[in-house]
Amino acid sequence: MNPGGDVGPSAGTGLAGTWRVPGRVNLIGEHTDYNNGFALPFAIDRHSDVRVVLRSDRQVRCWSAQESRQVVAALDDLRPGGVVGWARYPLGVLWALETAGVRLPGFDLWVDSTVPVGAGLSSSAALLAAVAAGVDEACGLALGRDTLVEVCHQAETVFVGVPVGRLDQVVVFHARAGHGLLIDFESLSTEQVPLGIGPLVVVDTAVRHHNDDGAYAIRRAECEAAAAALGVPTLRHATAVAVNDRLDGVLLRRARHVTTENQRVLETARRLGAGEDIADLLYASHRSLRDDFEVSCPQLDAVVGVACALGARGARMVGGGFGGCALVVGLEADALRAAVTRAFAAHDWSPPTVFATRASAGASRVA
Ligand code: ADP
Ligand code: MG
Question: Which residues contact 263 (CB under 8 A, 6 or more apart)?
Fold first, then answer.
């Protein structure tokens, strides 16, 4: 990143515009991004809107329709770990831009989102990217999407302090309606893949889990340990034979998930291109996350079991795991909702939320 230069507020400081960025669902390729592997996510039809208003000072005021607390901060006071609460996300973007050499004016930032927060549909990247896209255009920075991906990733990993990979940031900037995005996390190259598959339904299990509570970091550390044991820079470069021959116990299971998941992603992209069915790959991904990576939970397993019994053309947990959402392909939302709600009630679990979605476009300006 080398943006450089000062940015002054436009003449007659006032409304600069509103930027909209979707959440995302990962069709396949879970816990592969930080192993430099492959994933195939798509953007959903729920989004964060951020209205950006330039200020003539270096003060930032943040509001969110989903939060009661307005946050006021001075750009000169921003430090990683120095902000608590939701405003870490928008303020982190401004910090990352300034750290990369851009001198910003102040802002009023108004946030509103239809992405459920903390459900694994990446409300965080939607918020970060909407701020980044808005500030970039409002200030005439023209940094380009790849630089904005890095800005958002720096904001989330360094300023907010959550050790996420780049999947969310890449897809919310690059997504195209009706397509999945095949991402190679070694080169960060992307390829649009037409999603000619039946209805896409999201089941939010209502089980909540936060990326910063340790389990995610432990999985990352285990993957690094497995790569080190195999003498490769990342598990991207591990072969199935080496994993099976030279690892055992937990590291064998973690590495086996990553290597087989990478193969499933590439096979999914190939089959989608050829108009072939991908159901077995989605179910295999779920089993691998459940048994080898051990990041599923009873509610996610129940959704996949119910979907399979109803004849879904694939179902799997999506996101980091331990709760959040599952994706079901090829069933209508109403039929699935009735069956999943019954199954959850039988266990006395909180009721799930079930909604149809479709592959949507990435970041854009809407006003
Ligand atoms: P996910 O990205 O799966 O929704 P994360 O834990 O990564 O879950 O990010 C959720 C966090 O992002 C929230 O706790 C909040 O700090 C911030 N956030 C996301 N959307 C909003 C919003 N509309 N208003 C305020 N904060 C938000
Ligand atoms: Mg997130």
Answer: 240
Give the mean model confidence (pLDDT) for residues 175-201: 97
* Verdict on whether the full-model pTM lies above 0.85: yes
Q: Enter the DSSP assignment of 47.
A: E
Nearest CA to ligand 1 atom 20: 123
Query: Could you tell me the domains of the chain?
Result: 9-192 (3.30.230.10), 195-357 (3.30.70.890)
For ligand 1, residues with CB inside 6 Å are 48, 64, 66-67, 86, 89, 111, 113, 117-124, 127, 210-211
Tell which residue, 338, 322, 332, 335, has the closest CA to residue 356: 332
CB-based contacts of 253, cutoff 8 Å, min separation 6: 291, 292, 293, 294
Quick check: is 112 catalytic? no
Q: Once rounded to an integer, what is the mean pLDDT over residues 244-271?
A: 98
Report pLDDT digits (tens) over 32-53: 999 999 999 999 999 999 999 9
